[in-house]
Amino acid sequence: MIKTPPYLQKNDTIGIVCPAGYMSIEKAQACINTLQEWGYGVRIGKTLGNDSPNYFSGTDAERLSDFQQMLDDDEIKAILCARGGYGVGRIIEEISFKKFKKNPKWIIGFSDITILHSHIYSNYEIAGLHAPMASAFNNGGNENGFTGSLKNVLEGHKIRYQASPHVFNKKGEAVGELVGGNLSLLAHITGTSSDIKTKGKILFLEDVGEYLYNIDRMLYQLKRSGKLNKLAGLIVGGFTENKDTERSFGKTANEIIHDILKEYKYPVSFGFPVSHEKENYALKIGVGYKLKVGKSKVTLEE
Amino acid sequence: MNRKNFLSSLLTTGATFPLSKFMEVHNEMNELPSSIPPYLKIGDTIGITCPAGNITLEEIQPAIQQIESWGYKIRIGDTVGKKDFTFGGTDPERAKDFQQMLDDNSIKAILCARGGYGSIRILDQLNFTGILAKPKWIIGFSDITFIHSHLSRNFNIASIHSKMCNSFPDDWSKAEPVQIESILSIRKALSGEQMKYDIVPDAANRNGSATGMLIGGNLKTIETLSGTKSDMQTTGKILFVEDTGEYLYSIDRMFWNLKRAGKLDELAGLVIGGFKIKPDDPGEEFGKTLYDIVLEKIKDFYYPVCFGFPVGHQKENYALKHGVIHSLEVNPATVSLQEIRSAKS
Hints:
The structure holds two protein chains of two kinds. Chain A is α/β, with parallel strands linked by helices. Chain A is built from nine helices and 13 strands. Chain A has two domains: 13-154, 3-Layer(aba) Sandwich (Rossmann fold); 160-301, Glucose Oxidase, domain 1. Chain A has helices at 25-37, 60-72, 88-91, 98-102, 114-124, 145-154, 183-188, 212-224, 253-260; strands at 13-17, 41-44, 76-81, 106-109, 128-130, 160-163, 172-182, 202-208, 233-240, 268-269, 283-285, 288-293, 298-301. Chain A has a seven-stranded mixed β-sheet with strand order 6-13-12-7-8-9-10. A six-stranded mixed β-sheet of chain A has the order 2-1-3-4-5-11, sandwiched between helices. The longest helix of chain A has 13 residues, at 25-37. Chain B is globular and about 50 Å long. In chain B, strand 9, helix 10 and strand 10 (305-306) form a beta-alpha-beta unit. Chain B is 33% helix and 21% strand. Chain B is an alpha/beta fold. Chain B folds into two domains: 3-30 and 195-339, 3-Layer(bba) Sandwich (Glucose Oxidase, domain 1); 45-191, Rossmann fold. The chains are: A alpha/beta, B alpha/beta.
């Protein structure tokens, strides 16, 4: 049975860390201010605005230690990853979840953070929060419904999301635990101890900046590793800023996904608002949801 | 400890540990040596097909002329000249062409015209039972790594990892010596010469000696095979990897996949081929070299490692017999990779 971390109370503290790529404090300021406006305390980890000379927000040891401290500190009720990028996979084996297992807390993020969500869900059956990160709060993003959905989830409200119909949708109803995240990372963790099982689950996928042929290749990996054949349902999020080869691949990302799903009968929703764009609702990984794909609307509710 | 002492202290463990480990594991798995397809004789026919990207008949003319000059006949598959966007024909067309080549007993080897992307889309449609009884050489690299690995893992059949039609020089007289030598190594492999490559050592190599089945290919492809039925089983083997056009962070991530999937734990040896690295975007400097990336993943293991082996997306890309037992000797002064023949072959 999946364990859900406690929802937040007023004045609870949220820790902000960068387990992967670098981010300056300035770029996270709107997020920090907003979390405070929501009534939470904020603890800034050493990796946010770290003086790292390279891509990462600190050495592996620094990123590990910062994350581990937040994980083990009982004062910290949730950990928000300020950004993804690349780097969680380098420290995941070193993180100790011993204390966290007994006292779970929400871990918030997406993209590279997919590894954390999958790892925790598969090994410890604890729910995670696939949701907007710090940069989503910039440029007025702190007032939209997507960062707003994070607030609602943290406060413990059950949300019912709606999405627009899509010509590729497959109608039907599915009930199951929600798993998924970034396609590249889900493909990358296949065969490792962080890998996810998808049987009877609702899987969601999104990605950014990938070559179309590579999206096809990654989907074949999911298919050939048995991850697509026994789903309860599938949610296709945004596949944005796709790249194409000099000789065009000849299909859009949605067409690629639509084609590979031909033999399956479960409901599928395309164009769901989970992505690297603004449209990115907070979703609880590992929690049971009901997906209804109808002719005129799509709903996803806990 | 200075580097020299460090290396010599590793030498003793490096020389014995992987070999004994290999024997032990080898017995445990009761793995049979690969079945080696018959080598080609003058007058034998090689089929050319496009399981992945498309190519025109004109583009493969240099390859045809060269291979015919070696005394082999060429059969041109239906997919040569076909184009379905990036693919050499639709999935059914590519699968059908490849299947015909597999099933036709008069074809003794199948040369993939080029890589690109697409083998994975037809792999599960192919029926390899015919070549179980009558194995034949399948030749290619890059995207063709899918086929090599699938053949080795499921059917225990050896194959040839080498350049393809698109790498034959238009004008043989103007080609660089390494390019010519790379092309001619395909002929050596096909005609049954015992393969042996001596290369210049790299200062970052880890010395030692290893014996085991040689497997590997394109790193991205190996990562994509993870968790599937074509996945590589690397225990006790000499693994070679190469890649092109990837960012350092992506190469790092792929090596993490290998490590976390246990593929680096029990190798006999590791051969790092060519890596054409995509430069970091400004402000996103990765801060680690390919050497750093590889060495940190294998620091807990003691097998020999050689860098800069001439295999990959470069002019110097020698034919390697995938699935065949090789010895790897990495010494401060020499590096050699040599095919080992059992008494029977």
